[in-house]
Amino acid sequence: MASGGLQLLGFVLAFLGWIGIIISTAMPQWKMASYAGDNIVTAQALYEGLWMSCAMQSTGQIQCKVYDSLLKLEGSLQATRALMVAAILLGLVGLFVAVTGMKCMKCMEDNQVKKMWMAVFGGVIFIISGLAALVATSWYGNRVARAFYDPFTPVNTRFEFGSALFIGWAASSLAILGGSFLCCSCPRRETSYPPTRGYPKNASSTGKDYV
């Protein structure tokens, strides 16, 4: 029962981490500028994400613009996109594989060893998914930090970490932790003993008396 509870906890954590990775990928707040230089009256804040850039007006309205061309984007941004999309796809595969290996599911009940190995395999996929998202968010955050501390970067164009980065870091950690818990359901090797052989019973009496 304890291993089943740990397995269920790992699946829930990994699932929440996968949902968080999707939310982080879709959010435009990967980096944000508190002020837009001299245009503070018309644009209060600027946000940039993987797919679009947004400007929040002083009235509270947010206007977003999707990036026009994929080829005009920086190579690092394209690589971050690819890693996050790969993390989402891997998480989807890990979700189906882990569900198959869950003890509360009835599929593959005839072979408990293979069923547990499916849960372990799903956990490994979740760990890889979390690592891909962690690399993507950390790489992007490193670029933002280096540009912020670069003395040649104008003050008006300096960006800080956005909320999407923090969600991505938390989500990737949950995916890795949940995948690790799923891997704890690895079937243990048990010492196999040769089957005991029954001793032959004494032959029943034939009913004949010998003198």
UniProtKB/TrEMBL annotation:
Membrane topology: Multi-pass membrane protein
Principal location class: other
Assigned GO CC terms: bicellular tight junction; plasma membrane
Gene3D superfamilies the record matches: 1.20.140.150
Keyword Cell membrane: yes
InterPro entries for this protein: Claudin (IPR006187), Claudin1 (IPR003548), Claudin_CS (IPR017974), PMP22/EMP/MP20/Claudin (IPR004031)
Pfam families membership: PMP22_Claudin
Membrane-spanning ranges: 7-27, 82-105, 117-141, 161-184
Alphabetized UniProt keyword annotations: Cell junction, Cell membrane, Membrane, Tight junction, Transmembrane, Transmembrane helix
Localization (cell): Cell junction, Tight junction; Cell membrane
KW Ion transport (keyword) present: no
Gene Ontology MF, one: structural molecule activity
Function: Claudins function as major constituents of the tight junction complexes that regulate the permeability of epithelia.
Family stated for the protein in its record: Belongs to the claudin family.
Name of this chain's protein: Claudin
Gene, per the UniProt record: Cldn1
